[in-house]
Sequence to fold (122 residues):
Amino acid sequence: MLFATEDELALCLPEGSPDDTGQRAEELLALGVGEVVVKPGAAGATVYAAGARPHRPAVAVRSPDAAGAGDAFVAGYLSGLLDGAATADRLDRATAAAAFAAASPGGWEGTPTRAELALLTG
Fold:
């Protein structure tokens, strides 16, 4: 499993790889990566995996400090994986966790509890 911004995908591939994010993700899948989670920040996130391409927009929040939002996204996604959630549900949890983190000052202070995440993800 790989979590990356669009720019970071290029670092994972040989020079001369395609510029298109989707093509880069497909190339990484062909190389054996099980899931490629592309998180371009305010544009939301997309998961590239065998047979799945779910996308979720970022949750709009007033952001006093976006520090920690990317880490919260990954934590939310992985917690969903550990809970056995489907790919789209993991993505929902990840975007909700990132929104909580971005809406709070500091790097970890806005980290949501499971109950708080349930408010956004149901």
